[in-house]
Write a structure and sequence with these properties.
heterodimer, A: about 350 residues, Arc Repressor Mutant, subunit A, 3 domains, about 60% helix, B: alpha/beta, Rossmann fold, about 45% helix, Helicase_HTH (chain A), Helicase Helix-turn-helix domain-containing protein (chain A), hydrolase activity (chain B), hydrolase (chain B)
């Protein structure tokens, strides 16, 4: 995917945003620093949404965006959209479905679902014509086994009609024939070989990245539709095990232990889990960033006295508060508590 | 046991006739005779062992050198109706590999890379199965004299012993006498033990032409002129992915043909779309690297153009063999400008380690095991070849490749019959009655001044009605799912 397009879509004209943080958020690098910036940019819903995608070179992209007058950039690889950049952003957003449909890819492995569903369509399509002589799509071993099991269990259930009806409803409900056509071109089946993203892109005169994003959104929506069907429907197996964890497993373990223990003794957690104390901090920060503000016990980690001091000194935009200034004002302040406070305040404002 | 093979062919695969050589090979195998088969590309090698498996219900192990090739073959076997097929390659992760190994007896056709067979666990598991037929595909890889020597193939003689010497089929598309001798020796056969079926390399329905251009600009222009006018579907081969992509864009913009690039750097889904479009006739031309071809089942490809020359004559013959499988006239054109030679020279330099690197790796053996590209070096290191011996082997290998490239270039500059020049490498000669002066090569007739006439006369004009029309989503889903109501 073209990084330039993603930077415009996720850029702002009111805030300088780190190129690396935007990119790493989308591809799911869950470092605390990335997640923290994702929180500040309002991008938490998109963490890992473009998992496994290849993006272009940062420097080249930045130079191109600047030379086209779409962004202003500072020395720290941060960008802010110019009015021309905002116009371009709006153009891209008009070509896409609402971004909430892209956010589905942050909670579910939509790319995997896309491969599965597209393969299932090929199998059912050829089956409906009674043709067993065809080249099957390539997919990894476990997915292949899953599809075989699914097909064996469901082939007596009039799959062609189910697929036809489900797709007819889904595509009809979109209310946009253009998008519906883009979806069906992603498919392969009996005497139908579909189109690649760049073939569709050149037909529609849009960048291929836009088509790839549309596909993710469309398949995300389709997945949500299928997940809402009554249990044990013919599509159930195709939607199984696609959920992504909101926090990493190790952060979850640390957080769960912290909640169970109840005494706030982080040293003990570090000992029990055989991880460094700084790692315990990182896990808790990750949990705080990803949990709703009421779901994280901030009071257990920041005393009311310290909370009061922090509130008294915080600048208007708490996200931009730097640790050096803060520790100047509040002696003995620890970075962990400082960052936790920033998260708390940012999330409280967001969720208000 | 006299089996009616024709009726089995019809029953299992729906074909009425065998391709040349297939029936004779199957008869040898069913008579329990080890066989070496030299069949041209597209000669139906897969069908041989698939049919053997279908008729005897026995298990077939197929050793194949390239992972990408293997996945194509798995697809191809599934395409031909066998579902119990699996490939054991280094592309599997640990979990996949353990599950497949635990369930190996469920599979009738097991593809395995030679590297995997070097793994004790894998070999032990295969030894515990009954193996009806042991197939060595691309058997020329065993020969140091062949262009694609793979040290792991040298262990196959030992593997065959360990498997209890099962019935063996060795297959290759191109093998000189020397290479055939090597294959038999390395697999510990006596000369008389092995039946050899050697089909001619010559494809009389493919016209051979080559053109030397002074520079790349003129070569590009010639390519555009050809693509604009040549009738039917075609493949254009490139040595570089980026050039294949650039050319696909240029040809799309400057001709009215439907052109796409295809190479190993693309994701699976995209490659699959392009492959299907080409087979369905929704794409006229593919600008490809050598990654394209194996999985393609398209009989009516009319021309193959080489924009870059391949590394050797064997590869050239394989690649041009993809046109005219329907026995209708086909055209093979090689475009060359003198700098192209250096591109191939660079490829040789990049694939054969130079003395300094070799010396370093011998001193730091851990670096060898860390990197898959050093497999060949690892083989010599593990087998106690000294640094000097290994260096001498690589030096010979480099020299051999340079010589092979020289022969390829010589073919281009050759002013006699190109067909004779090609066949010379396979110890094959055309008999007088097989010679067709009117349809042979551009040195026999004035092709380059009259190629448009050749095009109109020999290359089938495609029916434009078959060209794809864009369809609405309603039409697509109606087409995809045939309703029984």
């Amino acid at each position: 995917m073209e990084l330039g397009i993603l930077l415009l879509i996720f850029g702002s004209d009111r805030q300088f945003r780190r190129v690396k943080a935007v990119k790493n958020t989308l591809r799911g690098r869950r470092t605390v620093s990335n997640l923290y910036w994702a929180l500040q940019y309002g991008m938490l819903d998109f963490v890992d949404a473009l998992h496994g995608e290849q993006f272009g070179d940062d420097q080249k992209t930045l130079t191109a965006l600047k030379s086209q007058g779409l962004v202003d950039a500072d020395d720290a690889f941060q960008i802010q959209l110019t009015p021309k950049g905002i116009t371009q952003q709006q153009q891209y957003l008009n070509q896409l479905m609402p971004l909430k449909y892209l956010a589905i890819a942050s909670k579910y492995d939509v790319a995997k679902f896309m491969q599965r569903f597209s393969f299932a369509v090929q199998i059912v399509s050829e089956y409906s014509y009674g043709n067993s002589k065809y080249y099957p799509q390539r997919i990894d071993y476990f997915e292949d086994q899953l599809l075989k099991r699914w097909f064996v269990q469901n082939k007596e259930n009039d799959l062609p009609n189910h697929f036809h009806k489900e797709l007819n409803d889904f595509l009809g409900d979109l209310g946009d024939d253009h998008l519906a056509d883009t979806f069906t071109e992603s498919l392969i089946g009996h005497h139908f070989s579909g189109l690649t993203a760049d073939q569709i892109a050149s037909q529609h005169q849009v960048p291929a990245t836009i088509i790839e994003l549309q596909w993710l959104q469309l398949y995300g929506k389709l997945l949500t539709n299928l997940l809402s069907l009554p249990k044990n429907n013919v599509f159930s197996m195709l939607t199984a095990d696609l959920e992504k964890p909101i926090v990493s497993n190790s952060a979850r373990e640390t957080f769960d232990m912290f909640l169970r223990q109840g005494d706030g003794n982080l040293g003990l957690i570090s000992k029990r889990r055989k991880i460094k104390l700084t790692t315990v901090y990182e896990h808790l920060l990750e949990a705080a960033i990803m949990a709703p503000v009421k779901g994280f016990p901030y009071q257990a980690l920041i005393s009311s006295d310290l909370m009061g001091q922090l509130r008294a000194h915080q600048p208007e935009n708490v996200g931009d508060w730097n640790f050096q200034d803060a520790s100047h004002a509040i002696p003995n302040l620890e970075f962990f508590q400082f960052r936790l406070f920033q998260i708390y305040r940012s999330k409280s404002t967001d969720e208000d | 046991m006299k089996i009616n093979l024709q009726s089995k062919l019809k029953k299992y695969f729906g074909f009425d006739e065998f391709r040349p050589g297939q029936e004779a090979i199957l008869r040898h195998l069913l008579g329990n005779q080890d066989t070496l088969a030299v069949l041209p590309t597209g000669g139906g090698k897969t069908l041989l062992y698939q049919m053997y498996g279908a008729v005897t219900h026995q298990r077939v192990i197929i050793v194949s050198p390239l992972i990408s090739l293997m996945q194509d073959q798995v697809s191809r076997l599934q395409y031909l109706g066998s579902k119990r097929v699996v490939a054991l390659t280094s592309a599997l992760d640990f979990q996949e590999k353990s599950i497949i190994l635990n369930h190996l007896s469920n599979y009738q056709f097991i593809y395995v890379s030679p590297e995997m067979l070097a793994n004790d666990q894998v070999l032990r598991r295969i030894r515990s199965l009954n193996v009806g037929l042991f197939v060595i595909d691309e058997a020329h890889c065993i020969s140091e004299w062949g262009p694609d020597f793979r040290p792991d193939y040298l262990k196959l003689g030992k593997v065959r012993q360990l498997l209890g010497k099962p019935l063996t089929l060795m297959m290759t598309a191109t093998a000189t006498k020397l290479v055939r001798r090597d294959i038999i020796d390395h697999l510990d056969f006596e000369d008389g033990d092995v039946q050899q079926i050697i089909l001619p390399v010559n494809r009389p329905n493919i016209f051979l032409a080559a053109k030397i251009l002074p520079n790349q600009q003129e070569k590009d222009q010639t390519l555009i002129d050809l693509v604009r006018q040549l009738h039917g579907a075609g493949i254009i081969y490139f040595s570089s992915k980026s050039k294949a992509e650039q050319a696909a864009v240029a040809l799309t913009n400057q001709t009215d043909r439907r052109v796409m690039a295809y190479h190993g750097g693309m994701d699976n889904q995209r490659r699959f779309h392009i492959q299907q479009q080409f087979m369905d006739g929704n794409l006229d031309i593919v600008c490809a690297t050598s990654a394209f071809g194996m999985g393609i089942d398209k009989d009516d490809i009319r021309f193959v153009i080489h924009y870059h020359l391949p590394a050797n004559i064997q590869s050239y013959v394989q690649e041009i063999g993809r046109c005219g499988r329907d026995q209708q006239p086909g055209l093979a054109i090689l475009l060359y400008e003198p700098n192209d030679r250096y591109l191939q020279m660079n490829l040789i330099d990049n694939t054969i380690p130079e003395a300094g690197l070799l010396r370093y790796l011998y001193r730091h053996p851990k670096a060898i095991t860390d990197d898959d590209q050093f497999r060949v070096i690892q083989y010599y290191f593990d087998n106690d070849y000294s640094l000097d011996q290994a260096a001498a082997i690589f030096d010979r290998s480099r020299q051999r490749r340079i010589t092979e490239l020289g022969s390829m270039v010589q073919y281009i500059y050759h002013d006699g019959c190109r067909r004779d020049e090609l066949l010379k490498y396979f110890d094959e000669k055309l008999s007088t009655e097989d010679r067709n002066q009117n349809f042979c090569c551009d040195n026999d007739v004035d092709f380059w001044n009259h190629w448009q006439d050749f095009n109109d006369k020999y290359l089938d004009q495609q029916d434009d009605a078959s060209k794809s029309v864009s369809r609405s989503w309603h039409e697509v889903i109606d087409q995809l799912f045939l309703s029984k109501n």
